[in-house]
Amino acid sequence: MTSSRIVYLNGDFVPFAEAKVPVMDRGYLFADGIYEVSAVLGGRLVDNAAHLARLDRSLGEIGIANPHDAAGWERLQMELVRRNDLVEGLVYMQVTRGVAERDFAFPPAGTAPGVVMFTQAKTVAANPLAEKGARIITVEDLRWKRRDIKSVALLAQVLAKQQAVEAGVSEAWMVEDGAVTEGSSSTAFIITREGTVVTRPLSTALLPGITRASVLRLAAEADLRIEERLIPVEMAYEAAEAFYTSASSFVMPVIQIDGRPIGDGQPGRHTRRLRELYLDLARAG
Amino acid sequence: MTSSRIVYLNGDFVPFAEAKVPVMDRGYLFADGIYEVSAVLGGRLVDNAAHLARLDRSLGEIGIANPHDAAGWERLQMELVRRNDLVEGLVYMQVTRGVAERDFAFPPAGTAPGVVMFTQAKTVAANPLAEKGARIITVEDLRWKRRDIKSVALLAQVLAKQQAVEAGVSEAWMVEDGAVTEGSSSTAFIITREGTVVTRPLSTALLPGITRASVLRLAAEADLRIEERLIPVEMAYEAAEAFYTSASSFVMPVIQIDGRPIGDGQPGRHTRRLRELYLDLARAG
After folding, report:
1. What is the pairing mode between strands A6-9 and A114-121?
2. Co-location of B91 and B135 in the same domain
3. Which end of chain B, C or N, has fewer beta carbons within 10 A?
4. Total count of domains within chain A
5. Does the residue A42 lie in any domain?
6. Residue B97: inside a domain, yes or no?
7. Boundary-marking domain end, from B121, B147, B168
8. Does the global pTM surpass 0.95?
9. Are B85 and B42 in contact (CB under 8 A)?
10. B89 and B115 share one domain
11. What is the pLDDT of residue A285?
């Protein structure tokens, strides 16, 4: 939050301190908005086309017109990266249904969506946590039924992440009907003792992770067997390896779940390899 | 939205056009906040103590410190009513977890909650819709599992209300496992052919409606039989009367559900009586 930090706000690049939205913005009153986060590595956006495609899809699912095409978004992102001298970190994008007198129903046709973008400087590649591995807990999945939509209605995820923090660990995997859905801000993976990479199949129960898709592709290219299936919590406890993926954590080894060591309690061999492969991909831009 | 409209924002009464929150407000980024709405009739707050008690309870459930006690809130509400010359309408209150660099986990201890309050002028007593009765539809309940918390994570309710608007009706009752949970912004009631007032028992599946509680008390005082039980959609279709309650609609007769007339397709006798009784209560202040 330096004084020179620049935020994109509805067509303008403004100083951080001036980046404010009206209280009648539907993002503030109703969580009526969509967001995306793309990583930046070496000044370049990672997996960005897929993030922009998911942004477009999420907006469509809740009936907000996408204010920009992919090329338009990327121009704004890169301009924001440039203005903030961002080399490594994240670009955050949020689109809300705009500003209108408070009423649950959609505002009048022609109400302009609200757009906010900002950057966060962050070490995403040489992340010390990836070296030692993350400890996680499982928590009940309290979320709504359309988790395939990346909306800003994130209160359940906030409460899950806070449970993790209070337990002294890095992430919470959410569990529904005995099976892991996903992390509070990540996709859950395990690797079985037979070396199969396992993650939950896509549905409305979880977000279609962008990093998830890339890692599955890399795993296939590395000749790892892949299975998309439900992961009961007990199956996760007994895994040989575990990890989670997200735009900001890339591939994060998990060494402990609910206090139980995973494998030998160190980042797993296949997991480390997948992280390296993803980093190569990210660096290639 | 007149130029003289005044909004309360973190300790100050500001002109509407200046009522803006930082993009890093957790209400905007995470739906990490709680709200309440109290009706104003004849310049007086309706059922306000109960609304403030629920606000306190909701805040406690998600770990936000309540920035004011009930007397403090009511002083601010009445000052806002006065500054806006509000005789009839609503006072809206929102408390978020405050402004902090974006991170799912709670911000550092000591981060001040964000408080916004505004008024909306609105005819709540002599509402023409209450004369002719509301038509409604049923929709799937997509919400999260802690609907007893009045959070601003309202996207599912927005989508439900919009479905109602697109169907040309006034409200959507949300249905889970075949039974009505509640309306998108109201509590659902039916009255059986035997004259029993039926509404769903309180649980995490629905909001503990303030108007709901008052109407149940009034129904009991009027010697109506009351049953708190699940209402299957078919049971609602076959009801003698139906209505919904909320801070802004008071007691709203329902004359049609999913295109099926309820009773004789007119506001029901008991429903009209309950609305009168509630209006008496509201006017008494």
Report:
1. antiparallel
2. no
3. N
4. 2
5. yes
6. yes
7. B121
8. yes
9. no
10. yes
11. 72
Residue B221, domain extent: 128-284
Structural tokens at position A80? 């924001």
Query: Cβ of A175 under 8 Å from any chain B Cβ?
Result: no
Please give, rounded to a whole number of angstroms, the shortest distance from the CA of A145 to a CA of chain B: 5
Backbone angles phi, psi at B23, to 5 degrees: -60, -20
Q: How far apart, in whole angstroms, are the C-alpha atoms of residue A190 and residue A179?
A: 12
Q: Tell me, yes or no, whether A109 and A153 share the same domain.
A: no
Is B105 within 8 Å of A31 when comparing Cβ atoms?
Answer: no
Residue B1's pLDDT is 44
The residue in chain A having the minimum alpha-carbon distance to the alpha carbon of residue B158 is A104
Question: Active-site positions of B?
Answer: 150
Same domain (yes/no): A142, A113: no
* CB interface of B with A, residues 57-116, below 8 Å: 62-63, 92, 94, 101-102, 104-106, 116
pLDDT tens, residue by residue, B49-91: 999 999 999 999 999 999 999 999 999 999 999 999 999 999 9
Q: Is A284 on the interface with B (CB under 8 A)?
A: no
pLDDT digits (tens, 9 = 90+) for A35-57: 999 999 999 999 999 999 999 99
A110 and A11 inside one domain: yes
Count the alpha carbons within 13 Å of B80 in the hemisphere toward its beta carbon.
31
Please report whether residue A105 resides in a domain.
yes
Residue B232 lies inside a defined structural domain of this protein: yes
Q: Is the dihedral of CA A10, A11, A13, A18 positive or negative?
A: negative
pLDDT of residue B43 exceeding 50 = yes
